[in-house]
Amino acid sequence: MTTIRAEHISISYSSRRGGRKIVNDFNLDVKKGELIAIIGSNGVGKSSLLRVLSGLQKPGSGEVFWEGKSLSSIPLRSRPKYVSNLFSNYARVDGFSVFDLVALGRQPYTGMFGKLKPEDEEVVRVSLEKVGMTSFSKSPIGTLSDGEFRKVMLAKMLAQNSPVMILDEPTTHLDLPSSIEFLKLLKTLARDEEKTILLSSHNISLIFKMADKIVLLADTGAHFSGKPQEVANHKLMCGFLKTPDVYFENENLIFNPKP
Amino acid sequence: MSAILILLFLVSLFLGSVHIPVSALFALDELPQTEKHILLQSRLPRAIVAVCGGSALALAGLFMQTLFRNPLAGPSVLGLTSGASLAVAILTLGTSAAIISQYQIALAAVVGAFTILLIILAVAKKFFDVTAVLIVGLMLSFFTSAIVSLLQSFASANAIKTFVFWGFGSFAGLGLSDLPLFITPLILVIVVSPFFIKPLNALLLGEMHAGSMGINIKSLRIKIMLATGILVGVVTAFCGPITFLGLASPHIARFVFKSVDHRIILPSTILLGGLLALICDIISRLPGSDYAIPLNTVCAFMGAPVVIYLIVAGRKKKFLL
């Protein structure tokens, strides 16, 4: 089943020296329960593309569909029940307790003044449990490490209870163990709860092992998407890696320098 | 906190150079005419103005601090207060009118505040970035103070006196019959303010996050600024440019209730604002003496150290914005 479909998306930014087109005629069909990673150099438009797919930015042309419905026909208010987001830059408000922050994810379901019902509180507890942060429930956000904070934000997305989760560079600033832990959590959510997950990342080595599908954006505006092996052996990959001295081990899903 | 507010309200009613016993509250009709007049036409409206004005400024401060996610933002940050000051300066210093009524001053202040608000809203519509709005607001206030100094250098001593006295700030001067004009707009904004609780909480994590929670950011920003404009414009119009109450109250609320959640902070900031305004007003009347000091002097003396302490102590405990 298709959850998110992009048709002929192009994104461009206008500047004084003329417009710059970063994504050109982009098409994508995301199936339920897939973990899809978008890779590409800095500035190719990964974040912009994720914002367009999340409905937070209008594309220059083309259309986005959520479950077959055109995004423009879905009111702003009901969108958070369908897609939740994690952005790379967050205002970290130290005074929030972990529980209260995760409870923000219940906002689309609460009444006018945001009062939590017992079932909302239960969802928050379960979400914290899924990311293994139950013991931090009462801690203020200011006392958390980057990795812990990222997991709390993931719990907030889970509390939002959306079938689709879109994450912009969720592993930046995380050390290797935390990155692996975070991606494993996402993988589990995709497999066990059939969450559809789209993320962007620079962590090529991990992403090629974990993702079901990879979308490679080239700085020419071209793109290619497919299984990790297909993308790794595609000609656009050479342009992205900017060196012919690397080859991809198809059986182990890793890049290696040529002997 | 409500109990303290009511208590202070009563203190404010029965404190002053003319002694009126508290028991008079239960036997109003037996009170001599002069005392009754002082109680009903002077002290009662003054206490009501202090509570409403303080609450309004505190709420405006909270709106600005959350919208700009900046602990130093206050009602004056958008340049609204300085816009009001400029308009009042033009009226008192720039015209040759011999007698200027309080209503003319109030009208000038509202016009001034809203002119600045319109400029700020236009900027906010054009730019997505809050920092741009904040900087334009700050620059506007520099610009208006420059014009005010220019006007002052050419004005007569009497005109300057009128302007300076307005600048002291005061909750006095409104009679019981003038009250509805002052209270109605403030109460209206305060009553609808709980509807901002959810979007304000979402805003704490940034505008991008609020957008992903289905909130129309541009329209929210315009609504909040309009509400702030009404609150600050009306209070400044009738009470003068009152400092620190708007900046300090949200900080004290966050510190006391150890939370940044607007479900807790919004109502407590409103209550605290009214309470602090009453305290400042009572102190400014120097109980027991025949003298009084300007309200803004008291606000700054109390407000500045309190804010510094809260920021230093709050940073350690990680309970601030």
Could you explain the architecture of this structure?
The complex is a heterodimer of chains A (259) and B (321). Chain A is an alpha/beta fold and 259 residues long. Helices cover 30% and strands 26% of the residues of chain A. Chain A has two domains: 2-82 and 162-257, P-loop containing nucleotide triphosphate hydrolases (Rossmann fold, 3-Layer(aba) Sandwich); 92-161, no CATH class. Chain A has helices at 46-54, 98-103, 118-130, 146-159, 176-192, 204-210, 228-232, 235-241; strands spanning 2-13, 20-31, 35-39, 61-66, 69-70, 83-86, 164-168, 196-200, 213-217, 223-226, 246-249, 254-257. In chain A, the strands form three sheets. Chain A has a six-stranded mixed sheet with strand order 6-7-8-3-9-10, sandwiched between helices. Chain A has a four-stranded antiparallel sheet with strand order 2-1-4-5, with helices on one face. The radius of gyration of chain A is 19 Å and the shape is globular. By secondary structure, chain B is mostly helical. Chain B has one domain (2-317): Orthogonal Bundle (ABC transporter involved in vitamin B12 uptake, BtuC), CATH 1.10.3470.10. Helix content of chain B is 73%, strand content 0%. In chain B, helix 2 (33-67) packs parallel to helix 7, helix 2 (33-67) crosses helix 12 (262-284) and helix 4 (102-126) runs antiparallel to helix 10. Chain B starts with a helix and ends with a helix. Classes of the chains: A alpha/beta (259), B mainly alpha (321). The A-B interface holds A 54, 56, 76-80, 83-85, 87, 89-91, 93-96, 100-101, 104, 107-108, 110, 112-115, 140-143 and B 69, 194-195, 197-198, 201-202, 204-206, 208-209, 211-216, 254, 258-261, 263, 318-321.
